[in-house]
Every structure is written in structure tokens, then in C-alpha cells.
Design goal:
It contains 15 helices and 16 strands. The chain is of the alpha/beta class. The strands form three sheets. Strands 8-7-6-9-10-11-12 form a seven-stranded parallel sheet, with helices on both faces. It has a five-stranded parallel sheet with strand order 2-1-3-4-5, with helices on both faces. Strands 14-15-13-16 form a four-stranded antiparallel sheet, covered by helices on one side. The structure holds 1,4-dihydronicotinamide adenine dinucleotide (NAI) and 2-oxo-3-(phosphonooxy)propanoic acid.
Length: 401
């Protein structure tokens, strides 16, 4: 088994992976160089951070069967192409959430006190207490969290300690216990959140549906003098519209992600923070703390170990989530050919199997197979299975609709 790691990844994690197979560490690879590296190494498993994984890359190594995103967002990986090729894509949900929440609080605090501007002036020898001694203070202000996933919840935990009032919005009702535990109120929709918030912080994944979720209209709807914090993904916010609102003095902004940002570690990048003073900005470092990188590394190792040892992929993001209409639970003697016999019986009925698992009981004499499908086998088929000398019990279960 060969693992190609195409982004920065801790040495400790590489060492553990090295005990499972060969590890090729090429953190310098760009999206354009990735297909050739995959073809050359014939990697079975690819580990990436923000490096774009295209269909060409996925097709370059025939044995490639798993891509692990050493982070949260998977929009940089062509998951549809991976699904067509039967390649698993997995991520590490929540493992860098605290790091992003800490940066979010850092941006909120820095903007309120204008820490960056004050530092720059002091560095140039100017004492300007008159100008910088005018912060609003956070206590009692309202923070609106767009999305209420792993990162937003960690932001809520920290923001509460600063006395901020918390709102969120989502497509679906959020469990009341979860809201209560975080001291957050769910409002009707994004518009209501923008109307009521002094600070808006964006924590949703990028998708076609979320492209410019915070566009010109949403930016215009924010309260005058409000702050927008964006640490999720370039493209969720319309950077141009935001720059105009900040330039006009209506808003302030703290950004960690940008439209068209470079994927690598160092590059020239003309960006909206360049000419707009009230934008504070960092170069996509939300997840880049030692603590987060170590937690991510442990999770990547866990995902790969489980895949190699048991074929189980934790946090796969490109599986068909639809619950099958029927499941057949067969308890049987653990003998060669019993499972094949069950599958042959289903094949004769033209039943297309969707999922299958088989668990062996202690002692190794009996096992339990669960097979899922959309179309029910006939009573005769079930009876034939029940009559099989190595089958102990057969039960057909229909999913609740
Ligand atoms: N700046 C950085 O370094 C990092 C950025 N991120 C970005 O942050 C995003 C969020 O990360 P997590 O909180 O860990 O993901 P998550 O999956 O735990 O939470 C995202 C939540 O947003 C919700 N959502 C999606 N579209 C929405 C919409 N239009 N309105 C309201 N809710 C919506 C989802 O239902 C989900 O609950 C990631 O997808 C990634 O793009 C993640 C980690 C590091
Ligand atoms: O985990 C994520 O979604 C991130 O955005 C982190 O990106 P990175 O791994 O630092 O390139």
C-alpha cells in the first residue's frame, strides 16, 4: 500500500503511516503537478489539505481507492468524479474547529480594538491613544453565526464568555437542546440574522448553492457599522461587494479566506485587504495551529488504518446516504459458500444488492449477514434460504417510509 501525501503533514503522522506501508511525502506538489505524481507513484491512498484534486488526478493512479482531506472542507476535491470511479473521499470533521474558532475570536477582538492599525502606528513611532482609544466593546453585542456546524459551535462557546448574544440560522430546525447548550437562538432565516446582528460570522461549506450566499444584497442588509467575519471558504462571500461596503465606511471585515486565493504556502496575491483599511486579513491560517494539525494527523491515521485493516472508511463524504427500503438479516453457520449462496438466490430474483455486512460471533461458528436492497425478494426465495442447512434464521425488514 502506498500513501502519497501532497501537502504539509506532521512527521509523527507520517511515521505511523510508514508502519502500514510506503509513504511518499511531496508537500510541494501543486494541483497541476498532482496527476503526474499520482501516475508515477501509483498511489493507493492520497492525503491532501487545500490542494485541488481534479478528475484528471483521480484518474492518474489506477489503484487509487481513498482520498483523505486532512481538514474539513472537501470542495477542493472532485467528489462527483471520485464517486463515479468508486474512490472514497473522507474528511476529518471537527478536528480543526477550535483553531478556526480561536482565529474568529481573534479577528473580532482585533477589529473592535483596531489592534493591527495601532500596532503598525506604534511600530512607526506614533502614540495615538486619541485615535485608538475608541472601541465599542463586545459585551451585549449580537453575534450572528451563519451555519451551526462544528466551527460555529466552538465560536459560540468562546463568544459566550465575552458576553455576546448569539443567533444562528440554518436550513432546518436545530435541536433545541443543542441551541440551549450553546446559549444560541435560531432565527427564521439569513435575512433575519443579518437584520439583528452587530457581528456576522460565516461558517458554511462552499457549494454551488452557497456561492455568494453573502452577496451584495446581504451585505447591504447588514446593520451600518457591523462587522463581517469570514473564515469559511472563498466564494461564500462576494469579496468585491464586501470591499465596496467596507471602503464606503458601512462595514468592517475580518477575513481568512478569499475568492481566487492561492492554494500553496507562498505566492503573490493581490487581494481586497490591500487597499481597504477596515479589512483585517490572514492568509487561510484558520486551521494552522500545532494543536489542530496534530488532531487532524491523528484522525487521518485513524481513517487510513481502519480502511487498510477493515475496509471501513470513517467520515466518507461521497456515499449514497439513501436508506435502502429493505434489509435481509441472515444468521448462518460460518462456512465457505453460504454467503455466495444467499447472493445467488437474490441474483435469481434480479434483486440489486446495495449494501452488505457480515459479522462473526465469538467462537467462529456462526455469523450474521445484513444485506440491503430496494426491491423485496419473493416469499419463495426467502423460504429457499430458510431451508438451507447452514442458515439458522432469515428475517426481511422494511424501512419505515
Ligand atoms: N479557514 C480555515 O482554515 C478553515 C475553514 N473551514 C471551512 O469552514 C466550513 C465549515 O466547517 P465546519 O463547521 O467544520 O463544517 P460543518 O459541516 O460541521 O458545519 C457546516 C454547517 O453549515 C450548514 N450549512 C450549509 N449551508 C448552509 C446555509 N446556506 N445556511 C445555513 N447553514 C448552512 C450545514 O448544514 C452544517 O451544519 C468548512 O466547510 C470549510 O470550508 C474549515 C476548517 C478550516
Ligand atoms: O479544513 C479546512 O477546510 C481548511 O480550510 C483548512 O485548510 P488547510 O488544511 O489549512 O489548507
Amino acid at each position: 500500500m502506498l500513501v502519497l501525501i501532497a501537502d504539509k503533514f506532521p512527521a509523527s503522522g507520517r511515521e505511523v503511516l510508514g508502519r502500514l506501508g510506503e509513504v511518499v511525502y511531496r508537500p510541494e506538489l501543486s494541483a497541476e503537478q498532482l496527476p503526474a505524481a499520482l501516475a508515477e507513484t501509483k498511489a493507493d491512498i492520497l492525503v491532501v489539505r487545500s490542494t485541488v484534486v481534479s478528475e484528471t488526478a483521480l484518474a492518474a493512479s489506477p489503484p487509487l481507492s481513498l482520498v483523505v482531506r486532512a481538514g474539513a472542507g472537501t470542495n477542493t476535491i472532485d467528489t462527483a468524479a471520485a464517486s463515479r470511479r468508486g474512490i472514497f473521499v473522507a474528511n476529518c470533521p471537527g478536528k480543526n474547529a477550535i483553531a478556526v474558532a480561536e482565529l474568529t475570536m481573534g479577528l473580532i477582538l482585533a477589529l473592535d480594538r483596531r489592534i493591527v492599525d495601532a500596532t503598525l502606528e506604534l511600530r512607526h513611532g506614533t502614540w495615538n491613544k486619541s485615535k485608538y482609544g475608541k472601541a465599542r466593546g463586545l459585551k451585549g453585542q449580537t453575534l450572528g453565526l451563519v451555519g451551526f456546524g462544528m466551527i460555529a459551535r466552538e465560536v459560540a462557546v468562546r463568544a459566550r464568555a465575552f458576553g455576546l448574544k448569539l443567533l444562528t440560522c440554518a436550513h432546518h430546525p436545530i435541536a433545541p437542546e443543542l441551541l440551549e447548550a450553546h446559549g444560541v437562538v435560531q432565527v427564521a432565516d439569513l435575512g433575519a440574522l443579518l437584520d439583528a446582528s452587530d457581528i456576522v460570522s460565516v461558517h458554511v461549506p462552499y457549494s454551488k448553492a452557497n456561492h455568494h450566499l453573502i452577496g451584495a444584497d446581504q451585505i447591504a442588509r447588514m446593520r451600518p457599522g457591523a462587522t463581517l467575519i469570514h473564515t469559511s471558504r472563498g466564494g461564500v462571500v462576494d469579496d468585491k461587494a464586501l470591499a465596496e461596503a467596507v471602503r464606503s465606511g458601512r462595514l468592517r471585515a475580518g477575513l481568512d479566506v478569499f475568492e481566487g486565493e492561492p492554494a500553496g504556502g507562498q505566492a503573490d496575491f493581490k487581494n481586497i485587504a490591500g487597499d481597504v483599511g477596515d479589512i483585517y486579513a490572514t492568509p487561510h491560517i484558520g486551521a494552522s495551529t500545532e494543536q489542530a494539525e496534530s488532531a487532524i494527523s491523528d484522525e487521518v491515521v485513524r481513517i487510513i488504518e481502519s480502511f487498510v485493516a477493515r475496509g471501513i472508511v470513517h467520515h466518507a463524504v461521497n456515499l449514497n446516504e439513501r436508506v435502502a427500503r429493505y434489509s435481509l438479516v441472515v444468521r448462518h453457520l460460518d462456512r465457505v459458500g453460504v454467503l455466495a449462496g444467499i447472493l445467488m438466490a437474490l441474483r435469481e430474483e434480479r434483486v440489486n444488492v446495495q449494501g452488505m455486512s457480515n459479522t462473526i460471533f465469538a467462537g467462529g461458528e456462526a455469523a450474521c449477514a445484513t444485506i440491503t436492497f430496494e426491491q423485496a425478494p419473493s416469499d419463495e426465495c426467502l423460504q429457499r434460504l430458510r431451508d438451507h442447512e447452514a442458515i439458522l434464521a432469515v428475517e426481511l425488514r422494511a424501512a419505515r417510509t
